[in-house]
Amino acid sequence: MDFIVKLAEGFINLFQTGADTFIDWMGSIVPLVLMLLIAMNTLIQLIGENRINKIAQKSAGNPLLRYMVLPFLGSFMLANPMLHSLGRFLPEKYKPSYFAAAGQFAHTSNGIFPHINPAELFIFLGIASGIQQLGLPMTDLAIRYLLVGLVMNFVGGWVTDFTTSYVEKQQKVKLSKKVNIEG
């Protein structure tokens, strides 16, 4: 009987932990993401969607802009997870690669810009504590992590381009290379 009681308590505790996490998010990340969405959509309306689409189309034509500059700007200005929203301005063909590069960049820039992905800062700080114990500066590590991340995220995005093309051929589909934003 004790086993069944413990099992039931564990089951309820699982949902209680989920509810506590949800309430914590409602007081932290959810309002932040909501405000960033409002700010981004306001900026888009002020600049004009057609202009944004033209900039995105030009960015999409250059892999360096697509997988280095755009993820960096998105991460720095919008932080994670909002940086992924910039993918809406890219053609379908390049969205998988942008998301690959952007998702990685949210981690590799954490050491120098902790606001980008504060939930994952513990990874960088764990590595940095070992560097500190060796008497080495953390700033050097953070900058190297950022620079290597920029290059590797670009490579990851570009490799995903090839993977996407392979899957297109395999599945006999053709993804658009033109920006198409639905209202």
Automatic annotation (TrEMBL):
Q: Could you list this entry's UniProt keywords, alphabetically sorted.
A: Membrane, Transmembrane, Transmembrane helix
Q: Which GO terms describe its biological process?
A: phosphoenolpyruvate-dependent sugar phosphotransferase system
InterPro entries reported in the protein's UniProt record: PTS_IID_sorb
Query: Which Pfam families does the annotation name?
Result: EII-GUT
Q: Does the keyword Transmembrane helix apply?
A: yes
Q: Specify the superkingdom.
A: Bacteria
Question: What's this protein's name?
Answer: PTS sorbitol transporter subunit IIC
